[in-house]
Write a structure and sequence with these properties.
Strand order of the largest sheet: 1-2
Family: Belongs to the major facilitator superfamily.
InterPro entries: MFS, MFS_dom, MFS_trans_sf, MFS_Transporter
Distance between the termini: 22 Å
Subcellular location: Endomembrane system
Oligomer: single chain
Strand content: under 5%
Membrane topology: Multi-pass membrane protein
Pfam families: MFS_1
Radius of gyration: 23 Å
Number of strands: 2
Helix content: over 70%
Largest sheet: 2 strands, antiparallel
Length: 517
């Protein structure tokens, strides 16, 4: 009898593989869109900010699906949720294939992001429940699927060459989508650790509380408001109404440390995902000088991430998760600063530094939340991921596009003033606006027909602006390093960082899934 119980409670490695391939699918969609963004921009005459908005919508709807499914996933079921994600991935590929402009590209990317959020809403708590005593280690293993997908999807697309129709590249996402769809079917997902321990639904909500709800709801509402053109007053009223109702129900501010972790997640996600959304395009001019497509820089840093995430177990045994995050933040800032001015072979050196720095960010943050707030079950982990994704989408991807457009706008004006030319009034003729301000965008059609000398000057300004954007992003990991260092000092004053473990589950429930911590 004991042998049967042990087998039933052992982690299901094939189910873990299905979760891993599902994460690979999310990054396939990410990299394929990142690599085709320049083609979309050229074919549909999109500005950098419009391109950034499409990159952003590949991220922020993630927050909607990951939060909503986290609230109901224990009732709906993990497998049913994964079926929804599968449908989203297939539908997104179909809509994008038939896209005729900005709107359809936006909708197709939006649906992909919903599927991606659902995948994470399932896989993060499922893996944490399968490996309750080694959460950070196995979450790093799980999220090695992200850079693995970036590499596989990116290499496939890049080897197809820039001349290949982007529609064929987008269809590559069907390969891993069908893979996880088939892998998950015969397996039973584990019961969540919170449920097995008998922690109530209300107690789970109290871990997030009013403070956590204000952050995630505010981000979602303000992004939806920008899509539908709501006034700031409307956004504030809607946010306060939702959070107010939630507060009346839970009557808890939430765990202060958890709320702080949500705030820290914003700059962390911008550093990793916001930069990844643009890195291929930002580094394309410099990479072309050494005969490579810009996308290879993302492939290279992703390869570093795969190796290091699979080494996470040994590293975390030697340094605490927060210590690892503090070190990585400093390394990432250094890498971004070097990338902003690198040329030739030094691009690879700078990319190596940045790749090392960003390797442990996402899964280690989720691991810390899972270890410190297990009562929050799927919700605390997934709200953290949701804040990260929407922060990268709303702020990171868009602000990088805006920084480029605004810098081009200002530099062309400055060039005209110094050289008595009229490049700005001739080519920066398209007024645009975003949440960060207004600017005059370059008209791609006019620039294409410009005289060679003028075209070269404007292009030079554009290339300079792209690289300077990385210096702006480097400020985020610098701030992170300070935050993680302060948290280290806080835990040291409390006797050191320790994982929180829930009590043993009762016999009836534990037979349905892996044993709790």
């Amino acid at each position: 009898m004991s042998t049967t119980t042990q087998t039933a409670e052992a982690p299901n490695k094939m189910l873990f593989l299905a979760c891993f391939v599902a994460i690979v699918t999310t990054s396939f969609g990410f990299i394929l869109r990142a690599l085709t963004l320049p083609q979309w921009s050229a074919e549909f005459n999109l500005s950098n900010t419009q391109t950034g908005e499409i990159a952003g919508v590949g991220l922020w709807p993630f927050a909607i699906s990951i939060v909503l499914f986290s609230l109901i996933i224990d009732k709906v079921g993990y497998k049913n949720s994964m079926i929804f994600a599968f449908i989203c991935h297939i539908l997104s590929a179909a809509i994008t294939w038939f896209a005729t402009g900005y709107t359809m590209l936006y909708i197709g990317t939006f649906i992909m992001a919903l599927g991606n959020g659902t995948v994470e809403a399932v896989t993060n708590p499922a893996v944490a429940s399968m490996f309750p005593k080694e959460k950070t280690k196995w979450l790093n293993f799980l999220h090695a699927g992200w850079p693995t997908g970036l590499i596989l999807g990116g290499v496939m697309a890049l080897l197809m060459g820039p001349e290949t129709n982007w529609k064929l590249k987008i269809l590559l996402v069907l390969i891993p989508a069908l893979g996880y769809g088939l892998l998950m079917l015969p397996h039973k997902f584990p019961i969540n650790e919170r449920v097995k321990a008998g922690i109530s639904y209300l107690d789970m909500l109290k871990e997030v509380g009013i403070g956590g709800a204000l952050i995630i709801v505010g981000l979602i509402v303000f992004q939806i408001g920008s899509v539908f053109g709501w006034a700031t007053t409307v956004n504030v009223i809607v946010t306060l109404a939702i959070v107010g109702l939630f507060g009346l129900f839970v009557r808890s501010f939430g765990k202060p440390l958890f709320v702080l972790m949500l705030l820290i997640m914003l700059p962390m996600a911008i550093t990793e995902l916001g930069t990844d959304s643009w890195i291929s395009d930002l580094m394309a001019p410099a990479m072309s000088k050494i005969g490579l497509q810009g996308g290879w820089i993302l492939i290279y840093t992703s390869a570093i991430m795969v190796i290091l995430r699979f080494c996470a177990g040994n590293i975390i045994h030697r340094i605490s998760p927060l210590g690892l995050l503090a070190v990585c933040s400093g390394v990432a800032a250094l890498g971004l600063f070097f990338l902003s001015g690198a040329d030739g072979v030094m691009i690879l050196v700078a990319a190596t530094i940045f790749g090392i720095g960003k390797s442990f960010f996402w899964p280690t943050m989720l691991g810390v939340v899972a270890e410190r707030f297990p009562k929050g079950g799927a919700l605390t982990m997934n709200v953290t991921g949701g804040v990260g994704m929407i922060g990268a989408g709303v702020l990171g991807a868009v602000i990088l596009g805006f920084v480029q457009d605004k810098t081009i706008d200002n530099k062309l004006q400055a060039y005209d003033n110094q050289n008595k030319t009229e490049l700005h009034s001739t080519y920066a003729t398209t007024p645009r606006s975003s949440m960060f301000g207004t600017y005059q965008a370059i008209d791609a059609d006019k620039l294409a027909a410009a005289p060679v000398a003028e075209k070269a000057t404007v292009t030079g300004v554009q290339e300079t602006a792209k690289k300077e954007a990385l210096k702006t992003v480097a400020l985020f990991p610098l701030g992170l390093m300070v935050c993680y260092t302060l948290l280290l000092l806080y835990f040291r004053s409390k006797g050191g960082y320790k994982a929180v473990h829930l009590p043993e589950a009762n016999t009836e429930v534990s037979a349905q899934g892996p044993s709790p911590a």
